């Protein structure tokens, strides 16, 4: 008990501070413990209900079955290929989509006339469910990597362009006044003021796009269905191996979280000065 | 406006002839400035005072070449203003420092835009920073500075391009009283060493009286110049804080108040 108390009050500057720290850290500890308990309860509850037949084990599988399948598949190189290809498609999709969206935003910023002309097109394209374009991609660029990548890009590019263009326009006008008084031309204005000022919004877009790209890629793999985690899900569904479906889902969730955390890390690094 | 800081022999730095400005938009047209005529000789310190919305900032933007006048002509050292002139420095109430750049890279921003960035101009900018007592902040980011310090950095950035004319739009309005006086003193110090024409917009009558050679009182909407006040020599030569304590200061301030309320 004494040991716990010293841990809880470590680094305290005074008695008052120690009490504050203890309270704060106890609450923090409570959150962690509850989180872990909840996780264990869910997993064991799932396992027990499946074994007792409270839920249909054929449909809902069970944690042990999923784990066993995972161990079994992890010896198969094809499994890693499936993971690798999906990760590659997603990363390429969201990076290219964000880049292309930013490029498009720059283009319409450079020409106010063009921005007016393109506005309704952007609105229509943005409202359109991009996954509906799938068949079109397949017939134009083939049922493979290119189609899936195209889907990942299509789902991110327009919304990125709109968000970033908005961000370009919302830069404080005093900054632009000042730069113009210094004789800055439009190009200098963009490169030295507007673009750097919008980097935080660009990174937010990146974070949103990670999630969107996963949607695009998984749906793309559903349609093309040759390899990748999306294919595994569809395949598992077709042969009614729901354990495979659930395993693939868990892996997707895991990888998507990792990617999101990496982008958050990148954000903190890039914005460390602001 | 030929007495005061600028003598008759000096060239005319800013000349406005019957300039007007009307802002146009789909819904409306706003007459911001009625015909205004004035001349400022080189080396003169002129303040533009008047209630909010009477077109002071508009006049500054016109002189800066940021917006064209609706009618009338504006000349800077005899040349018609068509675009921002190289001889101008412009400063706003907001310091507008780029928070992703260090102080060093902020003060050379104007030099960059004018393609005058060189070792020589950079070291000149650093010397100015030193002169304003901020030599130690060179590698810091704006977020690490206090409001008064930020505004001083903005002043250095403006001065770094060696302007002949300073256009100041309420530059000291956002800082506390103590810092304001300090900034005023710094500005007057800089001006005592370099010859510059200053056009200062302020709603602070005390400030106008303490710093200027001439005060233009604006009023109305659309705004126009209602009154021109020559500041007595003894106030012109006194430092900003000292000036405020002179016996002739209060009566003049009262006169200005009355002019404003008219
Ligand atoms: N860019 C603009 N577009 C339309 N109206 C403007 C613009 N800038 C200023 N105005 C209008 O012109 C008038 C004068 O404004 P301003 O010059 O900013 O006055 P001041 O600086 O004296 O407060 C105000 O009525 C203001 O609303
Ligand atoms: Mg104003």
TrEMBL record, chain A:
It comes from Melghirimyces algeriensis. This is NitT/TauT family transport system permease protein. The chain crosses the membrane at residues 29-48, 92-115, 135-168, 189-219, 239-263. It is found in: Cell membrane. GO terms for biological process: transmembrane transport. GO terms for cellular component: plasma membrane. Belongs to the binding-protein-dependent transport system permease family. It is a multi-pass membrane protein. Keywords: Cell membrane, Membrane, Transmembrane, Transmembrane helix, Transport. It holds the Pfam family BPD_transp_1. Its main location: membrane. It comes from the Bacteria. PANTHER family: ABC TRANSPORTER PERMEASE, ALKANE SULFONATE ABC TRANSPORTER-RELATED, MEMBRANE SUBUNIT. InterPro entries: MetI-like (IPR000515), MetI-like_sf (IPR035906). Residues 79-263 form the ABC transmembrane type-1 domain. CDD domains: TM_PBP2.
UniProtKB/TrEMBL annotation, chain B:
Pfam families: ABC_tran. InterPro entries: AAA+_ATPase, ABC_transporter-like_ATP-bd, ABC_transporter-like_CS, ABC_transporter_ATP-bind, P-loop_NTPase. Residues 14-245 form the ABC transporter domain. SUPFAM superfamilies: P-loop containing nucleoside triphosphate hydrolases (SSF52540). One of its GO terms (molecular function) is ATP binding. Keywords: ATP-binding, Nucleotide-binding, Transport. PROSITE patterns: ABC_TRANSPORTER_1 (PS00211), ABC_TRANSPORTER_2 (PS50893). This is NitT/TauT family transport system ATP-binding protein. It comes from Melghirimyces algeriensis.
